[in-house]
Amino acid sequence: MEIYFDNAATTPPLQHTAESLLGNPSSPHAMGIAIERKLTIARATIAEILNCPHNEVIFTSGGTESNNLALIGFAMANRRKDVTCMAQPWEHPSILEPLKFIKAHGLANVLIAPYEAWHNCKAHIRLAAISHVNHETGDINDISAMAAALKKDNPHTVVLVDGVQGFCKEPANLSNIDMYSFSAHKCHGPTGTGGLMVRNNMRLVPLLYGGGQENKLRAGTENVSGIVHMADTAKLLRQNQAGNHNHVAKIKLKLTELANELPNVTVNSQHHNSSPYILNMSFLGIKGEILVHLLSEKGIYVSMGAACRSRKNTKTALEAMSFAPEVANSAIRFSFSHLNTVEEANTAKQIIIDCVTQMRNALGMYSGLNSKPSCML
Hints:
Elements: E1 3-4, H1 30-50, E2 57-60, H2 63-77, E3 84-87, H3 93-104, E4 109-112, E5 125-131, H4 143-153, E6 158-162, E7 179-183, E8 194-198, H5 213-216, H6 224-239, H7 241-256, H8 258-261, E9 265-267, E10 278-283, H9 288-297, E11 300-301, H10 317-320, H11 325-329, E12 331-335, H12 342-363
Parallel strand pairs: 1-11, 3-4, 3-5, 5-6, 6-7
Antiparallel strand pairs: 2-8, 7-8, 9-10, 10-12
């Protein structure tokens, strides 16, 4: 038995008709022109989903490259002392790490603070990076409203949205948004493929130099096979977005019942508007890492947060959000796909109850419903 609830890390690719895509889209011969047409159709498909002109879609290797191009490319193109870049401390590493690079190399001022604290310096913000859906808690930001508020105080503010966890899952209003990143493997496409929506009035310095592909912002021969696969999958997901959303919500609701069926279990989010695709829960008294490994032995695959963070000694989003240490240390993340079933959630729920109960009994914990953790396994 295997139950895969780690879809925020990567999703199983949907079946895709294998096509012969031999040829370089930059080649002038008939085969190259044929491949270029497929690339053009894929670009138009993504542009339709994002409701933007097709020439504002730049294909990359994924969300990390897209966020790096947006942030570092902007900072390098706008080197001035009055340029200030802002982000919240619980953003994905592909946002926070490029901002560290920008600060370390003196490309711009960088301020990392909760959005509520931005009002003191909104007039000075030139670039704001916000996530559509938080990668650990699933909290959804009203990106259009946030962008409108920022631009009201400073019309020159550029807004980058990390759309990786929301693309083809949550409705996205990109009015007031200047750049939007997405990644294929988070929505049943192939790894190593993604993109960045860049408004035509944006000035970015490319990070890669060569043949001048992708509107001279991303040199290198395009991964046409991966891009076509991504576009076809995104189109299918967009057509079924509402139905998939409702289906996944039932799965999340079933696992959320653990908070009522086990003592000292919390659902972790900042506000009520959260995506059904992500559920973050803490089983107090048990380290999240240990529970993740135990569930893996039972054939249930979950995580503790961003896979990109697993190799770095950095704070989790929960820690950055000021959740109590015992909550952050005992948290695990479930993340779902429309391919999951309610039956899987039922099976997983019972296994989790058994595992948590056994571990707590072994430690002599939680004899009463409201008791506090005496130790952490």
